[in-house]
Amino acid sequence: MERKQSSFVILGILAIHPNQTGYEIRKTIEQSVGFFWGESYGQIYPTLKRLVADGLIVASVSGSNTRAGRQEYSTTPDGELRLQEWIAVPYRDDPPRNEFLLKLFFGNDVAPSVSISHIRRFQEKNRSMLMMLLELERQSSGHGSQFPGFPFWMMTLKFGVSQLNASLEWSEAALKMLTEMEARQDSSLRATEAVPPSGDS
Amino acid sequence: MERKQSSFVILGILAIHPNQTGYEIRKTIEQSVGFFWGESYGQIYPTLKRLVADGLIVASVSGSNTRAGRQEYSTTPDGELRLQEWIAVPYRDDPPRNEFLLKLFFGNDVAPSVSISHIRRFQEKNRSMLMMLLELERQSSGHGSQFPGFPFWMMTLKFGVSQLNASLEWSEAALKMLTEMEARQDSSLRATEAVPPSGDS
DNA sequence: ACACACATGTAATTGGTTACATGATTTC
DNA sequence: GAAATCATGTAACCAATTACATGTGTGT
Description:
The structure is a homodimer of 201-residue chains. Chain A has 201 residues and is mainly alpha-helical. The first copy, chain A, contains seven helices and two strands, in the order αααββαααα. Chain A has helices at 5-16, 22-32, 41-53, 77-88, 99-105, 112-143, 150-193, and strands spanning 57-60, 72-75. Chain A has a two-stranded antiparallel ribbon with strand order 1-2. In chain A, α2 packs across α3. The radius of gyration of chain A is 25 Å and the shape is elongated. Chain A starts with a helix and ends in an 8-residue tail after the last helix. At the A-B interface, α1, α4, α5, α6 and α7 of A face α1, α4, α5, α6 and α7 of B. Chain A binds a DNA duplex (28 and 28 nucleotides) through α2 and α3.
């Protein structure tokens, strides 16, 4: 409880890239840490207000883009400090909850085809995610290497890639096992249901 | 919303292994799906009541173990059906949130040693987790292979193992990169701070 | 003129953890 | 007789998503 993770993502993102609106912050989060972190507007806007009240960020009425209702934010030195403190605190992993694995685990209660389609879906998601990450990696390597944060960004990216590759490898083996299982079931069905062909030799 | 995942873990666990108390259910969850799913008592007990009210499980006053305040539960045919339906519904992955990666991503804002210790901690956790899973796998392969659910349990186990292995491999590379980074920093500090040694040849 | 992206926000609801409280039974 | 484990529960609190509501600017 009372972890306020949302405020720290926002703080961290603004530290890297200041003068962003709530809307932009969300986009940036999606495009940078999106594969391992998500934030909704319902979380971002209230958090921004609280961060301003706490003096960790400031709202400026904008640099060049003067659009009605547009509000840009940046970190204050205080905010920067708080961010650094938070980063240094040992991370805590929240209780794991993987619905995909849970459904697979209970796979014996349903037809093999159900588990197969779960895994197929899993594969597709992983493949497209992997392509996105590789694309991001390719792009970043070009024009991004000038930023001081770059090595760290690459690190998290590579983590994602390695996990996805492992997932995909695993899924191939799992799928093979399940299709064999299904085949066995089908053949046993045939054996009991089908009328044995009369001797036709 | 309204996903009620907790009820389905409980339903699924009771389907595999009936006649368990809330307390036991939690233990079973921990020991079987624990590495990818967690439930707290504050969730389990209220959920059990609701499941009884909905007719998806029944409470029996116990088989042999007649202990005061002890309440055993089992699934009803209805519960079994609902479970199967739920399993067949495409899984939904909840928004990812990995505090470890987030802190790493912001690593440029702190000393390299901070990120290094995060990764060290990550490695330790992964190593002990991996050992637990391998131990579980070893045990199961012996006496567990008789259960019809066995192949599915092994599947999820193997998933965990592959992810952990990938994580550990990645962490070695990441650590190497960071220690090099730290060394460069140290040497540049030395270069500016230290008094150049006078010619001592 | 229309659609789409930009932009901000709130209310309702839920899902969940944590901490607290209590007591029985077993084991040493 | 003390400690650990078994066993059940509730209250407080929080973090978060979703859906709703509203309006501006840009491009076609």
